[in-house]
Request: fold
Amino acid sequence: MHSINFDKNLIKGVKLVDINKLNPHEKIIEKKKTSLAKFIKSYKDYYIISSIVCCHKSMLIVDGHHRYFALKELGFVKVPVTLIDYQSNSVRTGKTNPLDKKYIIEIGKSSVLLNPKSTEHAVYCNKSKKWEPIILLSSMFKIETKENLK
Reply:
């Protein structure tokens, strides 16, 4: 088990959110999305999934683009989301040549998406004193496949 010690003020909420309120900023790798959608669809009653990490103000998807597009394709109306304070200094957008957060938010509001994996969001771990993958802020959710699949 991997644990992370982060600024607890970073998490602003964990809940189900209308999928149409989320704002992606990156294109996806189609094959990866298709495989994930097929995998989720193979579960008859429910599937356990990591929540999508989003900015609590702009609803920008920070982590989970493939989960977002797979769930959207499958017809899910509500998706699990962990809302974070994206402006926190504990969140970075990349190791080398990080993009400005305001720029990423503007991309999320537009219809033009960045190439897949253009950002490498990370969260600072107070324990290890290292930057860790931001997916570690996700919560596990049980999503009902029986009721939600097209």
Observations:
- Helices lie at 30-41, 65-73, 101-109, 145-148.
